[in-house]
Amino acid sequence: MDYLLDRVADLTRRVIDHDLFTVFLLDRREGRFTWRKALGYDPDFVRDRVFLLGEGIISRAVTTREAVIVPDTTRDPDYIPPRTIDGRTPRSEIAIPLLAQDRVVGVLALESVEPDHFTADQARILAVLSSQLAVAIENADLYEEMQDQARAREEMAERIRTRFESYVTPHIAEQLFKDPSAKALAGERRRVSVLVADVRGFTSAAEALPPEVVVSFLQEFFSVMTHLVFRYEGTVDKFLGDSLMALYGAPIAHDPRYGPSDAQRAVFTAMDMRDAFRRLRDKWWAMHEPFGGVELCTGIATGSCVVGNMGSDKRVEYTALGRTANRAFELCREASPGEIRIGERTQAELQGDVRLEPVADPESAARRVHRVVGLKYLT
Predict the structure, then answer these.
(1) Which of 62, 150, 271, 282 has a Cα at 20 to 30 A from 355?
(2) 172-219 per-position pLDDT tens digit
(3) What is the pTM of this model?
(4) Angle CA(115)–CA(116)–CA(121) in degrees, nearest 5?
(5) Average pLDDT over residues 76-84
(6) What is the DSSP string of 322-337?
(7) What would the DSSP string read from start to end of 258-286?
(8) Is pLDDT at 364 greater than 50 in this prediction?
(9) CATH homologous superfamily, domain 174-375
(10) Of 71, 75, 57, 65, whose CA–CA distance to 104 is shortest?
(11) Helix, coil or strand: residue 50
(12) Residue ranges of the domains in the chain?
């Protein structure tokens, strides 16, 4: 736009003699003009003087939508004398409305220190220039609006990306962000491994501790557990009091040909959680005796779930629904302190990497439940 206005000012200078040149843009919502280009005027005057719609010769050009020629400014009640660089007072003016598709976007005005300086022929020349300038200004406005929208989209995208990274690892967030259909977030049915970890005995311990200690412990606990979920590229579903729910296989599944399967990742995470929790428990136990009675219990189930962003119009979170999620909670509740229990489908995908022990399930002989002892190659 600056380059274009420089060209228009130069071209105008070649065909029409004048002392002052200015282009005003019109903001109808604000009811005011803004200086867009000004040559020959005192910079302080340009900075301080605001022209409102209804003031000056330029407002008359907007109202009539035609060129306005003022032969003698001293006899025109609408004329507002400016301050010029050389101190001389203009005696004549010509103002041309900038029309773009029948909309006035601004005014081009020339002034001269000589009276009766501008003619109708010059007005017709300026009208041709002004029509091209008006179209260019409108295009520039549209371009700026598009840039504003693009920036708004980028800001929204960054907020979404940040939200993704609160429950998945950054590189998975990037895959989600590049998904053009956003199917993974809109809702789908996927095979997942659901991990639920609960701090057994925490409620009674919390009742015996100051609130700030309880909150500090939970903050560190969730921070450590989230780090471990991310280490195996899982998704943090939610925190529930002193429990954590994580997903493997959603929103992005892992191909077992190129690394651990989602079920293996869930079990590996659970074992690291168990070890990390014991270190965390012992650290806090040394400072507060009630922590001595807490233990981590974990349940893992594998199967089909409905996953996606769910919630209200005020708060949305990525989560999983279905029997598999319910089964993971059941296994967690049934687990003994410090125990990791897995269902039959999870056990079938471990490929012998983990040492397991069967757990007697009095409710149904058909349900094969195992407890995780550790990795097979470790004694």
Answers:
(1) 282
(2) 666 666 664 455 566 688 899 999 999 999 999 999 999 999 999 999
(3) 0.58
(4) 145
(5) 93
(6) SHHHHHHHHHHHHSPT
(7) GS--HHHHHHHHHHHHHHHHHHHHHHHHT
(8) no
(9) Nucleotide cyclase, GGDEF domain (3.30.70.1230)
(10) 65
(11) coil
(12) 2-149, 174-375
Place domain 2-149 in its CATH homologous superfamily: GAF domain (3.30.450.40)
What is the Cα 227 distance to its own chain's centre?
A: 23
How many of the other CB atoms lie within 10 Å of CB of 334?
Answer: 15
HSE at residue 207, side-chain half, CA atoms within 13 A, is: 4
With H, G, I as helix, E, B as strand and everything else as coil, classify residue 356: strand
Average pLDDT, the chain: 87
pLDDT of residue 88: 92
Place of tokens 């729910």: 245
Percent of the chain with pLDDT over 70: 88
Q: What's the pLDDT band for 139 if we cut at 50, 70, 90?
A: confident
**Of 361, 237, 369, residue with least CA distance to 306:** 237
Q: What is d(CA 182, CA 176) in angstroms, rounded to the nearest whole number?
A: 7
Using one digit for the tens of pLDDT, what is the confidence trace for 291-322?
Answer: 999 999 999 999 999 887 776 666 667 788 89
Give the side-chain half-sphere CA count within 13 A for 153. Answer: 7
Pairing, β 295-311 against β 340-342: parallel
CA distances from 297 to 46, 94, 142, 236, 328 (A): 73, 85, 59, 17, 11
Q: Which residues pair with 164 in a beta bridge?
A: none
